[in-house]
Amino acid sequence: MSLMARWVTLLVVVAVCGWLVARAPIATDIAAFLPGPATPEQQLLAEQLHDGIATRLVLIGVSVPDAAQSAQAARVAAALTRRLRADSHFTFVVSGDPKDFERERALLFEARYLLSPQVQAAEFTVEGLRSALHRLEQRLTSALAPLVRPMAPTDPTGEMIAMVERLAQRPPPRSQHGVWFTADGRTAIVLAQTRNPGFNIDAQEEAQRALQSAFGASRDEAGGGVDVSLQLAGPGVFAVESRTRIERDARRLSILATALIAGLLLSVLRSPRFLLLAAVPVGTGALAGLAVIAVAFGEIHGITLGFGLTLIGEAVDYAIYVHLQRAAPDDPRGNARLWRALLLAVLSSAAGFIAMILSGFRGLAQLGVFSLVGIVVSGAVARFYLPALLPAPRPRPAPFDWPPRRPALLRAAQAVLALAVVLAVAQIVVRAPTLWTDSLASISPLAASSGELDAHLRGDAALPEVRWLIALERPTQQQALEQAEALRPVLEQQRQSGALVAFDSPADVLPSERTQRARQAALPEAGVLQAALASAIASTNFTPNAFAPFVAAVEKARTGPLLTPAYYAGSGLGQRLTAQLVARPSGTTAVLITVHGVDAERTAQLRAAVRAQGATLIDLKDDVEMLLADYRRTALWAAVAGAALIVVLLAVQLRSVRMVGRICAALGAAVVITAGALVRFEGSLTLFHLVALLLVAGIGSNYAIFFCRLPADSTARRTTLASVILASATTFIAFVLLSTSTTPVLHMIGTTVGIGTLAGLVASAVCAAVETPTA
Amino acid sequence: MTERRFVLRALLGTLAATVVPARAQVEDLDQLFALFAAQGERRKAFVERRHSVLFRNPPESRGTLYFKPPALLEREVVSPRHEKIRIDGASVTLWSEGDDGKVIERKAPLTTIPQLANLVLTIRATLAGDLATLRKMYLIALQAPLPRWRLELTPIDEPVAGAVSAIAMAGDRGEVQRIQFTETTGDRTELLLSAAR
Description:
Largest sheet of chain B: 11 strands, antiparallel
Largest interface: A-B, 26 and 39 residues
Oligomer: heterodimer
CATH class of chain B: Mainly Beta
CATH superfamily of chain B: Lipoprotein localisation LolA/LolB/LppX
Distance between the termini of chain B: 43 Å
Shape of chain B: globular
CATH architecture of chain B: Clam
CATH superfamily of the domain at 1-33 and 271-394 in chain A: Multidrug efflux transporter AcrB transmembrane domain
Largest sheet of chain A: 6 strands, antiparallel
CATH architecture of the domain at 1-33 and 271-394 in chain A: Up-down Bundle
Strand order of the largest sheet of chain B: 6-5-4-3-2-1-11-10-9-8-7
Number of strands of chain A: 13
Helix content of chain A: 55-70%
Order of helices and strands of chain B: HHEEEEEEHHEEEEE
Strand content of chain A: 5-15%
Shape of chain A: elongated
Structural class of chain A: alpha+beta
CATH topology of chain B: outer membrane lipoprotein receptor (LolB), chain A
Structural class of chain B: alpha+beta
Distance between the termini of chain A: 34 Å
Helix content of chain B: 25-40%
């Protein structure tokens, strides 16, 4: 290819890549770094986690330092509730005031003859009414008479009580001063539902700002000078939090990495021109990587955008090798040697990203693809474009030589390395039983404290735990509701056997049309009911006209319309229904039944009972952990395959058993020492460490490749040494900075590769460069 | 406080002033509640009657009322059917007999049953001689002085549906002998207390 054509090609590629990247949407969804769905139930859950109504929930804690000041917290919480209700960012706000639930109570009461499980034809016969009135008389003389009395004339058969007993299986949340409170009495709880879904992070951020200013005003108004503080939790809050954190990290790390690496290169090489030119392969590689992702994934994740450049900081290495190791123009053999080493280094580095690509995490796979493409492209640009642009090569020999002249020194170094390997192996063996962590908490992009706050507020507000769910899916809404109704007796039986404490089924507030019609059919006509009632009353202590409103209410329910979800619109029950009765994108309807207090011993029994009814018990924690363990096993195989690929590449290119053996020894030592150090300092390993360990092997192989074929000429050899050390220093800086990230995946990769770069450099020097080359 | 209640208070104040001198009333109330407090832990037999438009004859239940200062109240009904409710601090436990004769136990925080909460707090504060707590909830008027006293309590806050809208009490020195609760529905519940056998 002519020089001209080569440049035109590059410009066209850059332009196309730039165009592809510019039109790709940017995702900031942290779920990309959580395991993807493996089963239809998990797919359903993933949808719910992404845009379900539950993602609109904001848990608000209004805290005071001392439980004695709970009255102030309650007043501020009440004022905040009032303000948020008037705020258009929020659609629904509750804080535990019994008055908050009057609307829900009224809706249930009004629909009692369509909702009550007690409604049957036998209930409205003379006999049925007589026993109902007998029961009512008992209730009116019991300690709870004040509750029953106001409803007695309109609901003598006690439908409301039957419904409430079925709905309220769990004790209600604690409350003080008319507001929900945490058990320690220091935090008043308010629940708010945002207008926009949780994944709309901009809208969430705006809503949270409105919330904060409403809190400020409420504190000034009702705080009475007490130190009242605000805590927020919930999916939307976390989404905003992690985006802010990722953006902050990305900005800080990019600036720091660029400044430190540029400073290092400038101070060592003293060539501003080189510095500018080194950016060409890196920039082209990054752009190509992003373009490939934009096409392959349809979107670019914020983490890839923010941290990808740091991850392929290694690409600077190729520019360094080309700049320093290029032979004089009159030595084509010297250059051919460099190009082969470079090709091998690029390919083995690329192989190091295989485990990441095959990890099963969408986000991680994206980072892996980006890095692989980025490395290969920047290697190619460094090889084919840089030489023509770079200033003439100037040897920059290292101030020392390697391997050392005295063999004893090398042997001592090898002994130290062997000792380090033994110590690392011992460390790993000692920790073997708990070597791997598969808990979601260990890899979740959320800060641990956010999760605790959420659990704390959620538990005390008696909100559904997020761990257990029963899911079922049917072609139509009616079929789904009928299935939920069929499931109810099974769940009730499980509840009574102690397998679970409570469950919330949407069919309890919205029965299927079939059930509603059956209940309507069970209600007698007004005249018939009037006669039966009169006859029943005659044998009781009640006055003849005591229940006049009852007859009218039954007639209204008998001839009235059936309940639809619209009946509950705008109420708390409506919110619950939307969350639990979900129209799927496929057109089917899913019912989600929340389950509380599942007895871990009896999960299998519950699971089987639920399955027999065509539904599935989902255990978020166990399912996710099992999935993570699965992913880890896959990643382990991918890492082994990647390592094997690196070995094959080396063998094909080097065609020397001895050299391949030395390089493998160096890489093995680097990986083992890194793993040992990780186990020592991080306690246990996760999937993310594992994929990064393959990266260590890929990066380490670069150093080993150069070390095992050091030039015979002393100046050239020392220049190669200098280039390798400089390259490893830039890589080390990039990954150490990455390890300071607060996002677990980046922290883990950074720590692993940071340690691994050092270990790889030392192990390569000690294992691969063992004989002073002779010409 | 609504304006209506304010007027009511002013009216009651004027009324009370005409019956007993204001200063004497304050002293008498303090003295009366000191007598209540001095009784300490006690168990009383009770008869309860509900006068309601719903009933031809007021139904009657009998049992015992047990109070242990400061916050344990237990009401055990033996006739017409067994039922026991215990309010210990803020937690309520109810044991009631089902149709099959089996006893069902239910628990709930007192705050979730506002209709009951007021009633319980009132009885507890009275028996404990805790005038300050009672004054936060009611306007208190001493209708007749010691020894055979009569009290009238009017809630300061608007009562919720089914809750108490007025209370009248009568007794002899430290003994509370009769409490009558008038509910928003117009029902009157009469509680007669006597020495437990």
